Structures are given as C-alpha cells and as structure tokens.
Amino acid sequence: MHEILINWAPQETRVAIVENGAVQELHIERALERGLVGNIYSGRVVRVLPGMQSAFIDIGLERAAFLHVADLHGSGHRAPAGNGTNGSVSAPVPIEKQVFEGQTLTVQVIKDPIGTKGARLSTQISIAGRLLVFLPQDTHIGISQKIGPPELREQLRARMQQLAGRGSPDDPGGGFILRTNAEDSSDAELADDIAYLRKTWASIRAKGFESPCGTLLHQDLSLAERVLRDLVHEGTQAIRIDSKMQFDVLKAFGDAYTPSAVRRLEHYRGERPIFDLYSIDEEINKALARRVDLKSGGYVIIDQTEALTTIDVNTGGFVGARNFDDTIFKTNLEAAGSIARQLRLRNLGGIIIIDFIDMGRDEHRNAVLAEFRRQLARDRTRTTLSGFTQLGLVEMTRKRTRESLARLLCEPCPICDGRGQVKTARTVCHDVLREILREARQFDPKEFRVVASAAVVEMLLDEESQHLAGLSDFIGKPISLRVEPTMSPEQYDIVLL
Questions:
Q1: Which residues of 6-33 are buried (b: 16+ CB within 10 A; e: fewer)?
Q2: 321 in helix, strand or coil?
Q3: In 3D, which of 66, 42, 49 has the Cα closest to residue 118?
C-alpha cells in the first residue's frame, strides 16, 4: 500500500511517502530557502559592457541580473581576422553585436543572487521533467553519460527520435536529454513527459508574448507539484493534503499536466494533524538519531561523515532461540530491511559502508545480500551494491539527489563543533593550569583570574584544589576563580589583573 501525505504551511511543505504503514521517504521544502534557479523571466537589457563581454538584465528583482556572452544561446563563432592561421582558432561573436540596450530577452536563472551580486542568467532555456530535460531551442537528442552500455544508449536515442516525432511533418521541434532515471522507463512514461514539457513551454511562450519585462514566466515546480509529477505511480492509492487552498492548486495543476494522478488526490479534513496518522514527526526525530533499534533487540549505528556513511549492525539484547549463528543471521536479515529504509528516510547518498555481524556460513551471507537487494529495489534513487569484501564489509553507493535529512534540519553542535564529544572538566582544568604557567613565564601581573564554566571551577576548588594551590605557590601569584554561566564546558579565559 503506497500513500503520499502532504503537510502544507505558508513557510514549509513536508511530504511523507508511506508504504504498508511505514514511512519510507521524507521531502521538505522551506519558502525562504527555495531559491530562483530554474526560473524563467521576461527580461530587459539595461546595460551592455563590451569590456566584460556581459550585460545587465532587469528581471524585476532588487538587483539587475548578469548575463555573460558564454551563456547566450546560439552566439556562434567568427573566423579570426587575417592572422595567418588556418582557421583552427576562433572567437565568439562579441556580446555588443548580439544584444542591445532596451532589448527584450527570455532568460533563465542559473545561479542565485549572492551577497551584493545579482543572479546569473542564460538565454539557453532548459525545462526539467521527471525523465527528460527539454531544450526548446535545440533539436538534438542527448543521453545522460551515466546511462550505458553504448547499445542501450542507441536504443534509447532511437526510441526518443520516434516518440519526439523526428522527421514527421507535424514535428513541433525541440531537443531532449534523457536523465539517468529514464534508463528503465516505458514508452508511455516518456511520451507523458514529452507532452508535459511541450505543454509547459507553450504556456511560457504564450505568457511571454503578453507580459511586460520583469515578469516571471515560469517557476520551477513547488514540492507539492513535484509530488504529482515525480512521485505518483500506478501503485499509489492516495495523495492526501491538509490544505484546501493547496488542494485546489494541485487539482488545477494535475488536470492540466498529470491527469492520471488527479483521481488519487484527496483533501484531508481530519481533526488530527495529517502527520499524526502514521506518527511521522516521531519518525523524523528517530531519523536524526545515531542509533536505530531493531524489533528483535538488535540495533544499527549510522554515522554520516563528509566522505561516506558507515553503518554498524549489533545484536544488542537479541539472544535468539537456537544458536549463535541463527541469532546473527536473523539480526542481519532484519537489519538489511531497516538499513534500506533508513537510506531512503534519511536520504543518505554517496559511498556507504555496512558492517554486518560476521557470518560463518556462505548461505547466510548470500541470503542477507539477497534480502538487502530486494529491499533496495524499492528505492527510486539509483544504488549499486557489491558483495562482501575480504574484511566482511558491504560496499554500496547511492546517488546524491538532495541534502540528507540531518543536514537539512540540523547544524553542527556549537559546543563540540560537530565532534559529538567534549573534553572532561578534569581535562579542561589541566589545560587551565598549563596556560597559567605559560603566561606566568611571559607576564608579571598581580593576580591571575580563571573565568570558566561551573563544572571546571567546581573541580578546581575541589579535586584539583591541591594542584591549583601548588601552582600558585610555584609562580608566586594568587589565582582566583569566577564562574561564567554562558561558557561551554571547554571554554575558559585567563585574565591578568
């Protein structure tokens, strides 16, 4: 059973994908973090800068946007003027010969404004669909470099040529790039995406003809709209949204672009918050934790680093009913399903190393791998899985599609700077004593005052008091203590009085 729950608020949209009563994926979009990349505007050239080979374009934002000659579609090249070469060197047509002040251009944002810099633009328009990217100004059919082998690429190109109507009298034109996730798509799915993209471009063109400069002609779909375009499939029973206003918006969008998904759309009117139906907020909190408990009593530890994610499986309190081998096997089997779910729920990508509990029998290892592959097959994101290495580890990769849940919702701890641990009060006390001795050799104050957290000051007054008194006698200066409640356990200051 596949359901999609949409919790909408003006500041944030949250989407949960539920399969058989368990949350499998979470998608979150915040209004202030959405950005402008992908937006298409009707712009007006306000200034051309030949020296920078660029132009400033007014697209209705606070600051004028920036367009470089390299981002002009069809800028072309000219032969070098009489330099004795054979034509192997060429230069782009200067921007001042392609655009002029007051000209109207249809432009797309390729980089958000940063600080005092305006957005960066391109006139090479591209519109992303679920399986394809549409290039309305081009005619070629491209294939993602990640799709292989060569014979498959040629098959896909031939199918796209036919579906796009190449060579037919009523071919509307436009180029397409097949995205990586289009590798296993059917003709019907590709045809739906082609129709959606062409309809979107027709709407943009029509709006461009009748709208003044500075008008937003097309905005990349909101998360709720992308649900209808990307996440709904034949097995989806229901799409429930808790906002009547957004329900109407989605219904209008679906009627125009994804009619097959509209019949599953429902407005949720229940008294309980929609995410309480499957305890989704509780699942979010669990997905931010390092430890994941298994029903059997075992548990999984997940550590996310910059380079990779490591996952460790432990038996915990599970003792089994027969023997130790069966206990390990059952724990690993349960962990395989749990890990596959956590990868989707936390949106972990990149290199992933899994340390299952060591198994002595080949049939057990093969069964665990088979179960893991079966669970990963439900993941829409591309994964690759290898067998057990000589060290008994399982290596896999999962394509990065967006920020992980932890990096979206959390930030490094300001106390430990993301290390996950802090120095003990005794360690900080010894740091303080060494620092006082170091400063006593360089300066000659009347008194040293230690400003630190309550735990450090308490230890200096109690267990480390003998060492503090001995240091005071050694340097011949009094040492006073003061508690600073705002200081973290590792922070301290030595004041020279």
A1: bbbeeeebbbbbbeeeebbbbbbbeeee
A2: coil
A3: 66
Share of the chain above pLDDT 90, in %: 54
Tokens 């002009």 sit on residue: 72
Non-local (6+) Cβ contacts of 305 within 8 A are: none
User: In this predicted model, what pLDDT tens digit does every residue of 153-201 receive, in sequence order?
Assistant: 888 888 998 888 887 777 778 899 998 778 878 888 888 889 889 999 9
State how far the alpha carbon of 349 is from the alpha carbons of 29, 120, 232, 353, 408, in Å.
Answer: 19, 29, 22, 11, 14
Give me the residues paired with residue 246 across strands. Answer: none
Strands (E) across 1-99 are located at 2-9, 12-19, 22-30, 40-49, 54-58, 65-68, 77-78, 91-92
Which pLDDT score, from 0 to 100, does residue 90 have? 55
Q: Return d(Cα 174, Cα 193) in angstroms, integer.
A: 13
CA–CA dist 341, 106 (Å, integer): 43
Q: CA-to-CA distance for 52 and 46, rounded, in angstroms?
A: 15
Q: Are 66 and 121 in contact (CB under 8 A)?
A: yes
All residues at 6 or more sequence positions from 409 whose CB lies less than 8 Å from its CB, including other chains: 28, 284, 288
- Asked if residue 314 lies in contact with residue 357, where contact means CB atoms within 8 angstroms, the answer is yes
Comparing CA positions, the residue from 323, 306, 386, 372 lying closest to residue 343 is 372
C-beta of residue 50 within 8 angstroms of C-beta of residue 69:
no
SS3 content of the chain, % helix, strand, coil (to 5): 35, 25, 40
Structure tokens at 77: 């090249």
CB 72 within 8 A of CB 99: yes
CA distance 148 to 63: 44
Number of helices (H) and strands (E) in the chain: give both, helices first: 12, 26
Give the start-to-end residue ranges of the domains of the chain: 1-34+222-287, 289-409, 425-496
Q: For residue 66, which phi and psi values (nearest 5 degrees)? A: -115, 130
Cα–Cα distance measured from residue 432 to residue 425, given in angstroms and rounded to the nearest whole number: 10
pLDDT < 70: residue spans in the chain: 75-91, 317-322
Residue with tokens 């179960």: 371
Per-residue pLDDT tens over the stretch 263-282? 899 999 988 999 998 899 99
Q: According to the CATH classification, is domain 1-34+222-287 in 3.30.420.60?
A: yes
Q: Decide the pairing of beta strands 350-355 and 383-388.
A: unpaired
Mapped onto helix, strand or coil, the DSSP state of residue 365 is helix
Q: Is 250 exposed, middle or buried (0-12, 13-18, 19+ CB in 10 A)?
A: buried
CATH superfamily of 425-496: Ribonuclease E, catalytic domain (3.40.1260.20)
